[in-house]
Design brief:
Radius of gyration: 15 Å
Largest sheet: none
Number of helices: 6
Number of domains: 1
CATH class: Mainly Alpha
CATH superfamily: Globins
Bound molecules: protoporphyrin IX containing FE
Structural class: mainly alpha
Helix content: 55-70%
Distance between the termini: 22 Å
Shape: globular
Number of strands: 0
Order of helices and strands: HHHHHH
Strand content: under 5%
Amino acid sequence: PITDQRPLPTLSEGEKKAIKESWPQIYQNFEQTSLDVLIEFLQKFPEAQDSFPKFSAKKCHLEQDNEVKWQASRIINAVNAVVGHLDNEVAMKQYLKELSVKHSSEFQVDPKMFKELSAIFVSTIRGKAAYEKLFSIICTLLRSSY
Ligand code: HEM
């Protein structure tokens, strides 16, 4: 399961390796993967749409909305940046803390939702164990400025 509470999990060298080897295949199809994840999230939690004024007006045909597509690509690119920082814990923490500040003060997102979106993301990935840890790190650090 994904956790968003400290202590922060640590990835073993084997888990880092598993992520580095499998991530390129996931990222290769990044537009579709992240769009599927975001659409499923918005359908499961319609109230989350209120956080996104840019697309909250259109409750149907979300998958054709360019703002939704853009948002989906931003999320997976952020995950890609985290994967790029797997061997640099300081940089990873710094990156996610800055993102946390934006989500708390600028976007005012309910912090419980990080876990929900992440669970959908991980459900699309095979060989989940290392990714559950990775997303637990992401969720815990995204909550850090709340
Ligand atoms: C914006 C990543 C989860 C709501 C962003 C941005 C990134 C991002 C990279 C752009 C930041 C910028 O402008 O510099 C992520 C990641 C998540 C996540 C990696 C979890 C794995 C969520 C959740 C919600 C949310 C669960 C809401 C329920 C927003 C909103 C914005 C935003 C409202 C601003 C959109 C706009 O530009 O109008 N997110 N996010 N995020 N995120 Fe997230």
